[in-house]
Write a structure and sequence with these properties.
Helix content is about 70%, strand content about 0%. With about 280 residues, it is an all-alpha fold. α7 crosses α9. The longest helix is centred in the last third of the chain and has 26 residues. The radius of gyration is 25 Å and the shape is globular.
Length: about 280
Amino acid sequence: MKHTREEQMAAFGRVLDVLDTLREKCPWDRKQTNESLRPNTIEETYELCDAITKGNIKDEIKELGDVLLHIVFYARIGDENGQFDIADVCNQMVDKLIFRHPHVYHPSQIGVPHPKPLPYGEDSNECEFTNVKTSEQVLENWEQIKLKEKDGNKSVLSGVPVSLPSLIKAYRIQDKARNVGFDWKDRNDVWVKVREELDELEAELTKGDKSRSTAELGDFIFSVVNASRLYHLNPDNALELTNQKFISRFNYIEAHSIRAGKPLNEMTLDEMDALWNEAKEKEKN
């Protein structure tokens, strides 16, 4: 169902009104702090990612609501502490979007309540970033623009959150380096690096040096992430699909063992492999 902007604003207003009431009248909501909410925020974000991965729209709506609740909750706490409120959060976000999209908005529109796109011409001299035609150009310009922002990134890689999961962090580090020209000229050349890192890993594993093997394993994984990025594949999404595939096939084996009354640890590897292949074939149907 398509809602009007007025209906959307009214719905957001309901969120603010209900949270205000809960914060005042519910003992649990009243005692929450930034520190107590943080672990739940991380959990809610992952639950949203799960819903998106599964393509479940009903769950996606639900989990987006949970994440939105946390955003509004943090803003409410900031308001109570006299630090900021939800308007500050929204305005700062919009101002950042305008600043980072000079090919759409003029910088003079920062702070304007309802900014309108300006008709830049092909030969516009308004800004060095105005003549943008592709999403790749936008990404390349963003890194330069972020370095120009007040309170923005002090270096290209400083914008990568320290707490990001390692696989996603590796992708973001490489992507940011690419945006300033530090990348392979020919993506096919990356396979030489992948094979080189694999050889070095195998050599260290043969020697039995755990510390050096760990370092080489990291280098190998980093090179595979680099390859996936160059071929426009998201390694985190790919790995999660494989995780789900493994879970489904292993659950099939376990369910068969329960029906047969034979515990998994009493099954042979050949028996489990046969069931694994059965599950694999069923996925094709």
